[in-house]
Amino acid sequence: MYLSDILSSSDLFDKISAKFFVRILIDFASVFILIRFVYYRNYKRTDLFTTFFVFNMVIFMITYLLNKVEMSMGAAFGLFAVFSMLRYRTEGISAKDMTYLFLVIAIGLIAAISKGGWDELCLFCLIILVVTHLLEGDWLIRKERGKMIIYENIHLIIPDRRPELLEDLRLRTGLNVHRVEIEDIDFLKDATRLTVYYYP
């Protein structure tokens, strides 16, 4: 009886293994393309690679297992929200990094609960990748980047001398600065904290 149970379990594994491995392969390939060829290409950061891939794998595994008990879409998105906020509820993270974290979790969720075939799943992932690539590039709008700096020529921050301020920032940073925002002013140290915006 015990041997028959093992064989029965083995047959069940054989039935679900093909579907499982196809989905996890599509999931991993999509996240790899997103992180390696879109995120890294634009931001040159590797410190969050492990976070992105681990979050994606954990979401995929848990959601795929829970999907066996007919998990509703509301429950799926509830799980999505919990995992997306768990790691970063007290730690600061940029909007861009949070966006990519959202995307890798969404891909894992879609790959786990999608009821369609592998071709439909590939189409969903492709749409996410193409739209993200277009938005990160200069296809739809010229991309602007910001950098925070400490600036000591405090006499140039008044509105009437804004052209002089921009020109000084261009010369000293080597960046094509076209606008600036004053974040903080320290009159005791004669310094100010600026965010300069430039086109890469």
Structural account:
It is a single chain. With 200 residues, the chain is α+β, with helices and mostly antiparallel strands. It is 62% helix and 12% strand. It contains six helices and three strands, in the order H-H-H-H-H-E-H-E-E. It has helices spanning 2-43, 49-66, 73-86, 95-113, 118-136, 162-173; strands at residues 145-151, 177-186, 191-198. A three-stranded antiparallel β-sheet has the order 1-3-2, covered by helices on one side. Strand 2 (177-186) and strand 3 (191-198) form a beta hairpin. Helix 1 packs antiparallel against helix 4 (95-113) and helix 1 (2-43) packs parallel to helix 5 (118-136). The protein is elongated and about 70 Å long. Mean pLDDT is 82; it is low at 1-9.
Q: Characteristics of this structure?
A:
200 residues; alpha+beta; 3 strands
Question: Using only CA atoms, what is the Rg?
Answer: 24 Å
Look at the structure and give the mean pLDDT: 82
Structural class: alpha+beta
Question: How far apart are the termini?
Answer: 69 Å
Helix content: 55-70%
* Poorly predicted spans: 1-9
Please indicate the percent range of residues in DSSP E strands (runs of 2 or more).
5-15%
